[in-house]
Amino acid sequence: MNRKSREFQISFDALNPRTLSTFWRDALGYVHPGPPGVEVPEGTDPLDAWDEFLERIGVPEDQRDTRSALEDPAGEGPRIFFQRVPENKIAKNRVHLDIRAAPGLMGDERMAALEAECDRLVALGAKRVQRFEPEQPLSLGFIVMNDPEGNEFCLD
To answer: What is the pLDDT of residues 31-50, one digit of tens each?
Structure first.
Protein backbone atom coordinates (compact mmCIF):
# COMPACT_ATOMS: atom_id res chain seq x y z
CA MET A 1 0.00 0.00 0.00
CA ASN A 2 1.43 3.35 -1.03
CA ARG A 3 0.02 5.83 1.45
CA LYS A 4 1.12 9.44 1.88
CA SER A 5 1.40 10.88 5.38
CA ARG A 6 -0.95 13.72 6.26
CA GLU A 7 -0.06 17.29 6.96
CA PHE A 8 -1.05 18.41 10.43
CA GLN A 9 -1.18 21.50 12.59
CA ILE A 10 -0.29 21.77 16.26
CA SER A 11 -2.77 23.89 18.22
CA PHE A 12 -2.21 25.61 21.56
CA ASP A 13 -4.90 27.02 23.82
CA ALA A 14 -3.58 30.30 25.21
CA LEU A 15 -4.50 33.28 27.33
CA ASN A 16 -2.37 35.54 25.09
CA PRO A 17 -1.90 33.98 21.64
CA ARG A 18 0.35 36.75 20.34
CA THR A 19 2.75 36.56 23.29
CA LEU A 20 2.83 32.76 23.32
CA SER A 21 3.32 32.54 19.55
CA THR A 22 6.20 35.02 19.78
CA PHE A 23 7.91 32.80 22.37
CA TRP A 24 7.51 29.70 20.19
CA ARG A 25 8.58 31.64 17.06
CA ASP A 26 11.86 32.48 18.76
CA ALA A 27 12.25 29.02 20.33
CA LEU A 28 11.74 27.14 17.06
CA GLY A 29 13.01 29.56 14.40
CA TYR A 30 9.53 29.77 12.87
CA VAL A 31 7.88 32.90 11.41
CA HIS A 32 4.54 34.64 11.73
CA PRO A 33 2.85 34.60 8.31
CA GLY A 34 1.42 37.85 6.99
CA PRO A 35 -2.31 38.58 6.73
CA PRO A 36 -4.24 37.17 3.76
CA GLY A 37 -3.61 39.13 0.58
CA VAL A 38 -1.01 41.38 2.22
CA GLU A 39 2.62 41.48 1.07
CA VAL A 40 4.80 42.06 4.12
CA PRO A 41 7.92 43.97 3.05
CA GLU A 42 11.32 42.57 4.03
CA GLY A 43 12.33 43.83 7.46
CA THR A 44 8.72 44.53 8.51
CA ASP A 45 7.26 42.67 11.49
CA PRO A 46 4.32 40.56 10.28
CA LEU A 47 2.59 41.21 13.61
CA ASP A 48 2.55 44.94 12.79
CA ALA A 49 1.02 44.08 9.42
CA TRP A 50 -1.64 42.03 11.26
CA ASP A 51 -2.42 44.97 13.56
CA GLU A 52 -2.96 47.24 10.55
CA PHE A 53 -4.99 44.58 8.71
CA LEU A 54 -7.29 43.85 11.66
CA GLU A 55 -7.87 47.56 12.25
CA ARG A 56 -8.61 48.12 8.55
CA ILE A 57 -11.22 45.34 8.45
CA GLY A 58 -12.87 46.59 11.64
CA VAL A 59 -11.94 43.94 14.19
CA PRO A 60 -12.47 45.50 17.64
CA GLU A 61 -9.23 46.01 19.56
CA ASP A 62 -10.25 43.58 22.34
CA GLN A 63 -10.67 40.82 19.71
CA ARG A 64 -7.30 41.24 18.00
CA ASP A 65 -5.38 38.82 20.23
CA THR A 66 -7.74 35.87 19.82
CA ARG A 67 -5.50 33.84 17.51
CA SER A 68 -2.04 33.68 16.04
CA ALA A 69 -0.10 31.27 13.86
CA LEU A 70 3.43 30.24 13.01
CA GLU A 71 4.93 28.57 9.97
CA ASP A 72 8.23 26.88 9.27
CA PRO A 73 10.08 29.24 6.91
CA ALA A 74 11.39 26.19 5.00
CA GLY A 75 7.85 24.84 4.63
CA GLU A 76 8.77 21.48 6.13
CA GLY A 77 7.48 21.54 9.72
CA PRO A 78 3.86 21.69 10.83
CA ARG A 79 1.94 24.95 11.15
CA ILE A 80 1.36 25.97 14.78
CA PHE A 81 -1.90 27.67 15.73
CA PHE A 82 -2.65 29.56 18.95
CA GLN A 83 -6.21 30.29 20.06
CA ARG A 84 -7.39 32.33 23.01
CA VAL A 85 -9.34 30.50 25.69
CA PRO A 86 -10.78 32.09 28.84
CA GLU A 87 -9.47 29.58 31.36
CA ASN A 88 -6.00 29.19 32.81
CA LYS A 89 -4.05 25.97 32.27
CA ILE A 90 -4.94 23.82 35.29
CA ALA A 91 -3.31 20.44 34.64
CA LYS A 92 -0.34 18.87 32.93
CA ASN A 93 -0.64 18.96 29.15
CA ARG A 94 -1.13 15.53 27.62
CA VAL A 95 0.90 16.36 24.50
CA HIS A 96 4.06 18.38 24.51
CA LEU A 97 6.82 19.35 22.12
CA ASP A 98 10.38 18.09 22.37
CA ILE A 99 12.87 20.58 20.96
CA ARG A 100 15.85 18.72 19.50
CA ALA A 101 18.53 21.09 20.77
CA ALA A 102 21.51 18.71 20.69
CA PRO A 103 21.15 16.31 17.76
CA GLY A 104 24.04 13.89 17.46
CA LEU A 105 25.72 15.03 20.68
CA MET A 106 26.41 12.74 23.63
CA GLY A 107 27.41 13.00 27.28
CA ASP A 108 28.79 16.26 28.65
CA GLU A 109 28.80 17.92 25.22
CA ARG A 110 25.11 17.15 24.79
CA MET A 111 24.15 18.37 28.25
CA ALA A 112 26.16 21.58 27.75
CA ALA A 113 24.27 22.25 24.51
CA LEU A 114 20.95 21.62 26.30
CA GLU A 115 21.97 23.96 29.12
CA ALA A 116 22.89 26.71 26.64
CA GLU A 117 19.51 26.37 24.91
CA CYS A 118 17.77 26.31 28.28
CA ASP A 119 19.44 29.62 29.21
CA ARG A 120 18.37 31.14 25.87
CA LEU A 121 14.75 30.06 26.34
CA VAL A 122 14.63 31.22 29.97
CA ALA A 123 15.68 34.67 28.71
CA LEU A 124 12.68 34.50 26.30
CA GLY A 125 10.27 33.74 29.16
CA ALA A 126 10.44 29.97 29.67
CA LYS A 127 10.90 28.33 33.07
CA ARG A 128 13.34 25.53 33.81
CA VAL A 129 11.65 22.63 35.63
CA GLN A 130 14.11 19.74 35.93
CA ARG A 131 17.25 18.27 34.40
CA PHE A 132 17.47 14.52 33.77
CA GLU A 133 20.97 13.10 33.46
CA PRO A 134 21.87 10.58 30.75
CA GLU A 135 21.00 6.99 31.67
CA GLN A 136 22.43 4.75 28.98
CA PRO A 137 21.21 2.97 26.98
CA LEU A 138 17.67 4.43 27.02
CA SER A 139 18.06 8.11 27.83
CA LEU A 140 20.63 10.54 26.49
CA GLY A 141 19.56 13.20 29.02
CA PHE A 142 17.05 16.03 28.70
CA ILE A 143 15.69 19.17 30.41
CA VAL A 144 12.00 19.68 31.20
CA MET A 145 10.74 23.26 30.83
CA ASN A 146 7.53 25.31 30.81
CA ASP A 147 6.67 27.92 28.21
CA PRO A 148 5.41 31.34 29.40
CA GLU A 149 1.87 29.98 29.93
CA GLY A 150 2.98 26.83 31.77
CA ASN A 151 2.87 24.31 28.90
CA GLU A 152 5.48 21.61 29.45
CA PHE A 153 8.11 20.90 26.81
CA CYS A 154 11.49 19.20 26.77
CA LEU A 155 14.90 20.07 25.45
CA ASP A 156 16.06 16.80 24.03
So the answer is: 999 998 888 888 889 999 99
